[in-house]
C-alpha cells in the first residue's frame, strides 16, 4: 500500500485536549481517501469547497479535480437533481456553477448570476415561486424546495447540499448513497463501488455543451507527493497546521481536524499560487463552521490570516446571525432562539454586539428610527394613535396610556363584533336583544330587534334599534322611520337627552352623552361607539368594554357563558325561542353560492383596498362577507353592507379607499352632494347649526360617516339641496324663516 501523509492521534498517548499529532501510515487511508464515522441524523449534508474537495452525505472526504459537469446528487426516482461544474471567465478566474432541478423547476447559478426557470433573480432578493424558495444570508444564497432538499452556495466554491431523512438510501452522485455507511459512498453510475475518487467522480460526468472539450480527471495520488517539491510541502504544512493550534484546539474534542488538514494540504499543493490563499481560507472556514454547528465558536480570522473587510462598521463572522438585531426588530430573541439564529452558520458581515442594523449601517439604539404604516420617523417625531400621542424614542414608540372610545358592530344576520373585538355569529330569529345596557348608572340602554332579512336570507337580520338615554326612548327602523316615545318624528330630532339626525344619505346618527350610534339605511348594519367612561359598566350582545374578551359573555347574573346561544338567551327582552347551537355555515348549506361569494368578496384582498391592508385586518371582514353573501338570495347586493363597514373602519383609521363605482355597490347622490368615505358626523345640514353642540362633543368630530354629503363650504337645506351657509334658513320653534326675513321677538327685531 502506498504510504500517505496522515495526521492522526495515537490512542495510547492522547486524551481530549492533549492530543499529540504525528505523521504516520494508517489503514484508514486508502488511495488518498479519509474514512468517516457513522452518525445517524435526521438530515445529512454533502459539502464541496476549494474547487476540488468533497464530503459525502455519510461524511467521507475525498479530492476530485474534474473540470466537466457532474451529478453532485439526485434522487434515484429523478424528482430532483443537482449538477456541479466549473465556470471560468476570460481572465482565468474559475468558480463553481450549479444547476438544480427541483421537480419541474430549474434553478441555475452561473458566474454569480441566479435564474429560476431562465428568469433572472436579483442578488439579495428573496423569492418564493412554485414551491421553490430563494433567500440570502451573509455570503450565501439558499435554494430550498418542498422535496426535502436545500442548497447553500457562496456563489464561488463552497456548496452545502442538505437532504432530509426521507431520502435515506435513495440518493446517487458525487455526494454518495445517503445511508449512514461511508463504505459504499463511491458507488459509480454503473452500480459498482470504486476504490478511487477519480474513477468514481468521472462516472458521474454528464453531457454539457458548455464543457464539451473537458477531459476525465486522473488518479494522481496526493498533490503534495506528486509535486515532488519539498518546499511546497513545507509551506503547505506551515499554513495548514494552524488547525492544530489555538484557537482551533478548542474544537478538537468535538471535531477531528485530520480531514480538513489533509484537504488544506491537497488544495495548497495542487492549486496555482494565486488560488491557494482562498482555498486554504475556505478550508479553515469550513472547519470553523462545522465547529459552530457543534456549539464551539472559534474566532480565528486576523488581519494577516484570511482577513475580511466589511463595509460601514460591520464585522465579519463565519456564523452570521440569521435574525440579527436591527432597528426594525431590535428585541433579541430568547436564549433558545439565539442558538437557532446561528444555526445556519454561513459567513458574512454583521453589526458588532450592541449595535443595530439599519439600511446597511450599524447604529446605536438611540439613533434608530421608528416605523409606522411603511413610513419612517426620526427620534422625537410624534404621531397620533386614536386618542393617544406617540413619540419616537430610541427606535420605539412611547405612547400615552389613555383609554380610547370603543366600537361594537352588529351587521347582517347576525354578525357581532364586541367592544373588545370578540367576534361571533348569532341565530337571532325574530327576537329582540339587549345590545348595550348601562347597569351601573342606567344612562343608556340599546336594544335591537331581528326579523326577516330583506335580501331573502331567512330570519335574523337587524330590523330596528331602540335607544333609551335617561328618560327618552327613540326607535329607528330599517326603513329610516324614527319614533320618539311612540310618536313618529321628523329629523333632526333634538331632546335634552339625545339627538337624532341624518348624518349622510346612508346613515342616521344618534348621539347621547358619551355614546354615538350609526344606523345604516342601505343594509343591516349598526355601529355603536362608547366613550371609555362606560368601561366596566355595560353588558349585552356588545360585551363588557373591559379591554378583555374573556368576560364579554357576562350575563345579567354575573356568570360568564361559553355558548353563544345561552349567552344571547339571557339578553332577549321578550319570551321567544332562540335556535339552539351554532348557526349553520350558509356557504356549506348553499354550496352553489360559494363561488359567487368568493368572487365578490375577494375585492377585499384586491388592489382596490390596498391602502387598507396595513391598517385594518381584512380576513375577518372577508369571512363575514362570505357568510352574508352565501346566506343571501343570488344577485342581491348583500356584500355591500360588509364592504361599507370595512371601508368605514379604514377611513376611521385615516385611509380612504375608492371602491364603489357605477356598477359595484353604486350610490347615487343628488342635490349637488358627493359621496365621501369619511364624511363629517355633524355640520353638514343647515339644521345642524343649532343641534350639533347638543351632545357628542369632541367624539363626533373624529367620527367618519360614509355617504352623500355636501362638499366643503356648502350645507344641505331642508329640501336636500346644497347651498352656501349664508342661504341657510333660520328656525324658531316649529317655524322656518328664509334668509333676510325679519321677525319681532318681544321688543327685539
Description:
This protein is an alpha+beta fold and 749 residues long. It has 6 domains: 42-211, no CATH class; 223-293, no CATH class; 315-366, no CATH class; 369-399, no CATH class; 404-583 and 668-749, no CATH class; 587-652, no CATH class. Helices cover 16% and strands 29% of the residues. It contains 13 helices and 47 strands. It has an 8-stranded antiparallel beta sheet with strand order 5-4-3-16-15-14-13-12, covered by helices on one side. The radius of gyration is 38 Å and the shape is elongated.
Write down the domain tally.
6
Global structural class: alpha+beta
How many beta-strand elements?
47
Please give the count of helices.
Answer: 13
For this structure, the quaternary state is single chain
Main sheet record: 8 strands, antiparallel
Shape: elongated
Strand content: 25-35%
> What is the spatial order of strands in the main beta sheet?
5-4-3-16-15-14-13-12
**N→C terminal distance:** 128 Å
Amino acid at each position: 500500500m502506498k504510504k500517505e501523509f496522515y495526521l492522526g492521534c495515537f490512542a495510547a498517548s492522547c486524551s481530549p485536549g492533549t492530543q499529540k499529532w504525528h505523521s504516520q501510515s494508517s489503514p484508514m487511508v486508502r488511495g488518498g481517501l479519509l474514512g468517516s464515522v457513522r452518525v445517524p441524523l435526521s438530515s445529512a449534508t454533502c459539502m464541496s469547497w476549494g474547487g476540488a474537495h468533497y464530503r459525502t452525505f455519510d461524511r467521507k472526504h475525498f479530492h476530485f479535480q474534474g473540470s466537466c459537469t457532474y451529478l453532485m446528487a439526485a434522487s434515484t426516482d429523478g424528482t430532483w437533481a443537482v449538477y456541479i461544474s466549473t465556470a471560468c471567465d476570460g481572465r482565468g478566474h474559475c468558480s463553481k456553477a450549479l444547476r438544480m432541478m427541483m421537480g419541474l423547476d430549474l434553478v441555475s447559478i452561473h458566474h454569480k448570476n441566479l435564474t429560476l426557470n431562465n428568469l433572472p433573480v436579483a442578488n439579495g432578493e428573496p423569492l418564493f415561486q412554485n414551491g421553490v424558495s430563494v433567500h440570502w444570508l451573509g455570503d450565501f444564497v439558499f435554494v430550498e424546495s418542498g422535496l426535502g432538499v436545500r442548497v447553500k452556495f457562496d456563489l464561488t466554491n463552497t456548496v452545502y447540499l442538505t437532504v432530509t431523512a426521507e431520502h435515506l438510501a435513495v440518493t446517487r452522485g458525487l455526494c454518495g448513497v445517503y445511508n449512514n455507511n461511508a463504505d459504499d459512498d463511491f458507488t459509480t453510475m454503473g452500480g459498482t463501488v470504486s476504490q478511487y475518487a477519480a474513477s468514481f467522480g468521472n462516472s458521474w460526468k454528464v453531457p454539457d455543451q458548455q464543457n464539451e472539450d473537458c477531459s476525465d480527471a486522473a488518479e494522481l495520488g496526493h498533490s503534495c507527493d506528486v509535486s515532488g517539491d519539498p518546499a511546497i510541502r513545507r509551506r503547505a504544512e506551515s499554513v495548514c497546521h494552524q488547525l492544530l493550534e489555538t484557537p482551533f484546539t478548542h474544537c478538537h474534542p468535538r471535531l477531528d481536524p485530520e480531514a480538513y488538514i489533509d484537504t488544506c494540504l491537497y488544495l495548497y499543493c495542487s492549486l496555482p499560487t494565486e488560488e491557494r490563499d482562498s482555498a486554504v481560507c475556505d478550508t479553515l472556514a469550513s472547519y470553523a463552521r462545522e465547529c459552530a454547528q457543534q456549539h464551539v465558536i472559534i474566532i480565528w480570522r486576523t488581519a494577516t490570516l484570511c482577513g475580511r473587510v466589511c463595509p460601514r462598521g460591520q464585522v465579519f463572522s463565519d456564523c452570521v446571525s440569521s435574525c440579527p438585531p436591527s432597528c426594525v426588530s431590535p428585541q433579541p430573541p430568547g436564549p433558545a432562539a439565539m442558538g437557532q439564529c446561528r444555526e445556519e452558520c454561513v459567513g458574512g458581515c454583521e453589526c458588532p454586539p450592541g449595535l443595530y442594523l439599519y439600511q446597511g449601517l450599524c447604529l446605536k439604539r438611540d439613533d434608530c428610527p421608528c416605523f409606522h404604516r411603511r413610513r419612517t420617523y426620526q427620534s422625537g417625531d410624534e404621531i397620533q394613535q386614536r386618542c393617544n400621542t406617540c413619540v419616537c424614542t430610541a427606535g420605539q414608540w412611547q405612547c400615552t396610556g389613555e383609554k380610547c372610545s370603543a366600537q361594537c358592530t352588529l351587521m347582517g344576520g347576525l354578525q357581532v363584533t364586541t367592544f373588545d373585538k370578540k367576534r361571533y355569529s348569532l341565530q337571532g330569529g325574530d327576537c329582540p336583544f339587549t345590545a348595550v345596557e348601562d347597569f351601573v348608572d342606567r344612562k343608556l340602554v340599546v336594544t335591537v330587534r331581528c326579523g326577516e332579512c330583506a335580501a331573502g336570507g331567512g330570519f335574523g337580520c337587524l330590523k330596528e334599534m331602540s335607544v333609551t338615554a335617561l328618560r327618552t326612548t327613540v326607535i329607528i327602523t330599517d326603513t329610516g322611520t324614527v319614533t320618539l316615545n311612540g310618536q313618529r318624528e321628523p329629523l333632526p330630532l333634538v331632546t335634552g337627552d339625545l339627538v337624532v339626525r341624518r348624518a349622510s344619505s346612508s346613515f342616521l346618527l344618534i348621539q347621547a352623552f358619551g355614546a354615538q350610534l350609526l344606523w345604516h339605511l342601505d343594509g343591516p348594519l349598526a355601529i355603536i361607539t362608547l366613550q371609555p367612561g362606560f368601561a366596566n359598566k355595560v353588558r349585552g350582545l356588545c360585551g363588557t368594554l373591559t379591554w378583555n374578551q374573556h368576560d364579554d359573555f357576562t350575563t345579567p347574573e354575573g356568570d360568564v357563558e361559553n355558548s353563544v346561544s345561552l349567552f344571547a338567551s339571557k339578553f332577549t327582552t321578550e319570551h321567544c325561542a332562540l335556535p339552539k347551537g351554532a348557526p349553520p355555515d350558509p356557504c356549506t348549506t348553499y354550496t352553489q353560492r360559494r363561488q359567487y361569494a368568493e368572487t365578490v368578496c375577494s375585492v377585499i384582498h384586491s388592489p382596490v383596498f390596498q391602502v387598507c391592508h396595513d391598517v385594518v385586518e381584512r380576513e375577518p371582514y372577508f369571512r363575514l362577507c362570505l357568510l352574508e353573501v352565501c346566506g343571501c338570495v343570488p344577485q342581491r347586493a348583500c356584500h355591500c353592507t360588509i364592504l361599507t363597514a370595512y371601508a368605514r373602519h379604514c377611513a376611521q383609521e385615516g385611509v380612504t379607499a375608492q371602491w364603489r363605482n357605477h356598477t359595484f355597490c353604486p350610490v347615487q347622490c343628488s342635490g349637488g352632494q358627493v359621496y365621501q368615505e369619511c364624511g363629517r358626523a355633524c355640520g353638514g345640514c343647515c339644521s345642524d347649526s343649532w343641534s350639533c353642540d347638543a351632545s357628542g362633543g369632541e367624539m363626533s368630530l373624529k367620527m367618519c360617516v360614509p355617504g352623500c354629503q355636501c362638499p366643503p363650504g356648502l350645507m344641505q337645506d331642508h329640501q336636500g339641496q346644497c347651498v352656501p351657509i349664508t342661504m341657510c334658513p333660520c328656525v324658531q320653534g316649529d317655524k322656518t324663516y328664509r334668509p333676510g326675513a325679519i321677525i319681532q321677538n318681544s321688543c327685539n327685531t
